[in-house]
Each structure stands twice: as structure tokens, then as C-alpha cells.
Amino acid sequence: MIVGTVGFFLFGVFALVLLEGVGISPNTRSNEAMAAAAAHAKSEGVAPDFELSDLNGSSVRLSKFKGDRPVLLYFWATWCPYCIAAKPQIAQLREKFAQKEMEILGINVGEGDSLERLKRYQEGHPVTWPILYDTGGKVSRTYHVQGIPLFVLVDKEGNVVYRATNPPENPKEYLQ
């Protein structure tokens, strides 16, 4: 429990430093601040390709969607209360945007969750988007996941256009 509390505290400090680095104070939600965040995300460039297995053992590769549709990556874990609290927002995005318009990939970071635990969790809490398991955390490290939840929106050209701890309210805003 102490480790989780310390990790959450460090994540909060990291988030404040990151936000201030792109000109967003913790109490600012103006259009100007959002534009600054979007501009920062656009500077991240091409999304690194990866291949992970879903809970049925099928392989999913990010580059499969390139040229076809954008992809929202959702880095999370079963033990993260903020990750679980974000699920209704993701479900709303799924309802708003059909799978052919935007893919959503839930990537369990693997740390603290075994594949068996993740499968048991998903049986009791099913979702309408694929859940991938990041064995060893390689994809999480590649995407510099410092805290969860983390949402990364990749446009259909394969570029990162959004990166934040909350899902984008209107993904189309970042995909134009």
C-alpha cells in the first residue's frame, strides 16, 4: 500500500512538471492550454509499432491499422482505481465511434497483474474493446508510460496526436 501511495504521489509530481512544461498549470483548462497540449503531443511524432497478444492469444499489431483508422491506446492495470474509473468514458467513446472509425486497444501494463489475474478480471468486467497484455512491460517502456492511466491517440497515418491521463473528449478534434 505504501509503494502504491508513493507511486501515486510521484506520478502526480511528474504530471505537474509535465503539464507546466507545456504551459498548462494544474488549474487551467482553457482552449489555449488545450491547444498547447495538442501541439506538444503532435511533436511526439510517429507511434512506435508493437505486437501484443489479446486475451484469446491472437496477435494484434499497431501498424495493422495504419492507413485505415486511428487507434486510441489505453495503458492501464486492474489494481489502478483511476484506470477503472476511466472505463465508462472509454465505453462512451466506443459508443460514439464505431470500431471501423477508431480502434481502442486496452493495454494492461503487466506490472502487478499476471495474465491469469487479468483474464479473471475481464471475465467479471467485460469491455467492448480488445485487451492486450504487455508481458514484461516492453511496450509500456517504449511509450514512456510513467503513470497510469495513459491515453495515446494515434492518427491513421501512425502519428501520436494526443497523450494524456484522461481520454480525449472529442478525438476528432485531434485527427484533422
The description of the largest β-sheet is:
7 strands, mixed
DSSP E strands, number: 7
Mean pLDDT: 82
* CATH class category name of the largest domain: Alpha Beta
**CATH topology-level fold name of the largest domain:** Glutaredoxin
Q: Total number of helical segments?
A: 5
Into which percentage range does the β-strand content fall?
Answer: 15-25%
- What form results from the Cα inertia axes? globular
The level of helicity is 25-40%
How would you write the strand order of the largest sheet? 2-1-5-4-3-6-7
Q: What letter string, H or E per element, gives the SSE order?
A: HHEEEHEHEHEE
- What is the CATH superfamily label of the largest domain? Glutaredoxin
Structural class: alpha/beta
Q: Based on the coordinates given, report the CATH architecture of the largest domain.
A: 3-Layer(aba) Sandwich
Please give the structural blueprint:
Layout: H1 2-21, H2 31-42, E1 51-54, E2 59-61, E3 71-76, H3 81-96, E4 103-108, H4 115-124, E5 131-133, H5 138-142, E6 150-154, E7 160-164
Parallel strand pairs: 3-4, 4-5
Antiparallel strand pairs: 1-2, 1-5, 3-6, 6-7
Structure write-up:
The radius of gyration is 16 Å and the shape is globular. With 176 residues, it is of the alpha/beta class. 36% of the residues lie in helices and 18% in strands. The chain has helices at residues 2-21, 31-42, 81-96, 115-124, 138-142; strands spanning 51-54, 59-61, 71-76, 103-108, 131-133, 150-154, 160-164. It is built from five helices and seven strands. It folds into two domains: 1-43, no CATH class; 46-174, 3-Layer(aba) Sandwich (Glutaredoxin), CATH 3.40.30.10. Helix 3 (81-96) links the parallel strand 3 (71-76) and strand 4. The N and C termini lie far apart (43 Å). Strands 2-1-5-4-3-6-7 form a seven-stranded mixed beta sheet.
